[in-house]
Amino acid sequence: MLSSDHRLPKEEISPLLRTGTHVRSDIIELVYKKTDSVPRFAFIVSTKVDKRATARNRMRRTMSESVRHLLTKAGPLDGIFIARRNMSDLKQTDVQVLIEGLLRHAGVLNTEL
Asked: Judging by beta carbons within 10 Å of its beta carbon (0-12, 13-18, 19+), is residue 102 exposed, middle or buried?
């Protein structure tokens, strides 16, 4: 789980979804805005992806754990990861590779660390 410093507050999610830059893969979408503070993230998994709450929570936890491993490399941004397809069968390392690719495409991942 991400520490509270790295979690995006609920009231900031809607404005970011409207004004942020979208980067997409076939499974996960990243909506982000570069900032001057620490990286903060939120995770969204809709009931359209899976009706079961346990499956949606597992996807959120998998994305959160993947981001936690990449926090030292991430630059300052506010980001929202949105699951577009069911990824409950993917391993955490596979999800981490997907998220790392999205952050790299967005240009907010420091590769020299």
From this structure: buried
At the topology level, CATH places domain 4-106 in: Ribosomal Protein S5; domain 2 (3.30.230)
Residues in the chain: 113
| pTM given for the model | 0.94
| pLDDT of 103 above 90 | yes
Cβ neighbors of 51 (< 8 A, separation 6 or more) are: none
Looking at the DSSP bridge assignments, the partners of residue 81 are: 30, 43
Helix (H, G, I), strand (E, B) or coil at 69: helix
Per domain, the residue ranges of the chain are 4-106
Residue with tokens 């995770």: 43
- The pairing of strands 28-34 and 40-45 is unpaired
How big is the chain by its Cα radius of gyration, in Å? 13
